[in-house]
């Protein structure tokens, strides 16, 4: 349980740092957020727990394929905000689009021979 709490605290601190930096410099905050910190921490935690190369390799491959459907959200939300749409509606639309694209990716990947079983 202690390891879980430590991991949660470290991950939370990273998110808090990004939020603080973004207040002063949105560009720098975006840069820090774009670094795959959560994925990297996930790799480290999984490696420490398992030491299994194949398990970590499968995790990293899945993270790549599931990262792709998130990209349009980062275009849709700023476009909507700049068009005068409210923050919450823009965020909801971005998240909704991402969910739809995730579902599409889950359906597509097995058809093209890529296994990222859930």
UniProtKB/TrEMBL annotation:
Chain ranges passing through the membrane: 5-22, 28-47, 59-81, 87-109
UniProt keyword Cell division, yes or no: no
Keyword Lyase listed: no
Keywords assigned: Membrane, Transmembrane, Transmembrane helix
InterPro entries per the UniProt record, alphabetical: BV97_02767-like (IPR058117)
Source superkingdom: Bacteria
NCBIfam families in the record: PRK09272.1-2 (NF006749)
The protein's name: DUF3147 family protein
Species whose genome carries this gene: Sphingomonas ursincola
Lineage of origin: Bacteria, Pseudomonadati, Pseudomonadota, Alphaproteobacteria, Sphingomonadales
């Amino acid at each position: 349980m202690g390891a879980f709490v430590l991991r949660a605290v470290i991950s939370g601190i990273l998110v808090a740092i990004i939020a603080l930096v973004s207040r002063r410099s949105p560009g720098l905050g975006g840069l820090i957020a774009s670094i795959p910190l959560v994925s990297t921490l996930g790799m480290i935690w999984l490696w420490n727990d398992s030491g299994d190369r194949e398990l970590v390799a499968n995790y990293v491959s899945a993270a790549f394929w599931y990262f792709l459907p998130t990209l349009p959200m980062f275009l849709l939300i700023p476009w909507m905000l700049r068009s005068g749409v409210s923050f919450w509606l823009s965020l909801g639309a971005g998240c909704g689009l991402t969910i739809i694209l995730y579902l599409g990716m889950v359906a597509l990947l097995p058809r093209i021979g890529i296994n990222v079983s859930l």
